[in-house]
């Protein structure tokens, strides 16, 4: 088996039978971008709610633009997917106490569309930062296609507004997290999404009828159901780019099942990358073990 380092030029690895696999990293703290090394394909998920933690941050276009711009500049030629604020549920935003955000259903894109002034500021910051690198924008907790259409309309309107202010900007591709089971089952109806990324943390909790880190449910036992749903959904993706950024992607125990489901792009916490990279070269693209392993 060749050393991993000889195979990881620009983040492209190959399975034992020669199929290219991309490994990107997930970042929470934007400073983690400094860990982006040549062996990584790019940033598959930047969780912006770690940078924007209060209503004041959410209203600050200049501050957000500077944070996103720095990440994009540091990533250089490599693609970066920044996810819009996934507020609600386990991720509060200081100052939003007036919203019933403890309601489990009001989070992610639903909350952004319920408070469009928050979405509009973030859209402007992202549109402006997009000039400085290869940005894509990802929407959290999408359940219905019209949510993407409404957010794209917000981006269009804010791009026009930036144009009137003569501020440089660029429209990024807009894709979605696949982390709500009903969206996964209906993925072929999401024609307006530019790309898909599976969020297995939420997919698991919603499939298993458990809360995140629920002590009453061994959610790991739902992994076969999650894998089956992903395999079905990948077939519905109609040739659009598909990746996975939930924790399952960084756990070698699930790698065989995820390869068998058709996934070829894994976005993992930086610390998980070496283990996943070495596991990939011991497997065939259909998830079976390579001869001699
Ligand atoms: C997920 O749900 O798998 C995911 C990647 O998003 P988060 O963990 O931020 O909810
Ligand atoms: Mg999630």
From TrEMBL:
Keyword Transferase: yes
Cofactor: Mg(2+)
GO BP annotations listed: phosphoenolpyruvate-dependent sugar phosphotransferase system
Keyword field: Kinase, Magnesium, Metal-binding, Transferase
Keyword presence, DNA repair: no
Annotated signal sequence range: none
Enzyme class: transferase
Molecular function in Gene Ontology: kinase activity; metal ion binding; phosphoenolpyruvate-protein phosphotransferase activity
Residue ranges occupied by any PEP-utilising enzyme C-terminal domain in the UniProt entry: 12-279
EC nos: 2.7.3.9
Family statement: Belongs to the PEP-utilizing enzyme family.
Protein name: Phosphotransferase system enzyme I (PtsI)
Lineage, uppermost ranks: Bacteria, Pseudomonadati, Pseudomonadota, Alphaproteobacteria, Hyphomicrobiales
